[in-house]
Amino acid sequence: MAGTTKTEKIRQKELSQPDSFQKVGTEASDWLAQRQKIIGLAAGVLILGGVGVAIASEVSKRGEEKASQALGQALTVLDRPVEGVEPVQPGDTEPPFKSVKERDEAVVKSLGEFRQQHGGTPSAVTAALAEGKAQFRLGNYAAAQTAFGEYLKGAAQNDPLRAEAFEGQGYALEADGKYEDAIKAFEQMGAAGGPFLVGMGDYHKARMLILLGKKEEAAQVLSKLTTAQPNTAAARQAGERLAVLASEGVKVPAPEAPAAAPVPDAG
Prior knowledge:
The protein is built from eleven helices and no strands. It is mainly α and 267 residues long. It has helices spanning 2-16, 24-42, 51-74, 100-117, 122-137, 141-154, 162-175, 179-192, 200-211, 215-228, 233-247.
């Protein structure tokens, strides 16, 4: 019973912490600004090609500018507060939502319509990430997996938000009980990197291994994480999980010693 109690406490602490799914409005705004900058830089390429290329580029530019503006409008739904959660601000013209669920439903409707109208644009890719998060919060896990997949398909390989999309995909697969597939998503999350998610891919992978009954393998992953990514949120949570596993009788490997710094060649 002691192990179960500790596990539940860890779960409650994790749920009480603001995760990446609660930053959807800020992320979307940042993405909108990034896309507009990219459009401005792309305009300079027009002089390098022929007339046909220039016309095609200009049409594309105008289409993306229009889509960016439409995305900003579609995201205004996030500015509306929720009763009992966020205070109404002076000057608000729209009534507050009655619940977080009602707002997420409005987000899905607004962004779904936007993506239908502006499919194929970078802004539509951005909207897929925000929609996936809202779908997940609503419990629409299959729809969330689809939205995250569309974002990952359209986003650049060096896009810093890919890690969050893989995390969301992993969460949605986990909620569907697809733990093996969730592990693959979390492994890709770790490979994608991300300044705020360091080590979290391995931490989530270990959680899935525990759910699959592979506790000793999970302990190995967690132990390596505490050494490889010290002083991170992932390492702290990994330490807490290791303590629970140890209380359940799982053999926890000793942390590996950090690699020694190379000695300069005296010659």
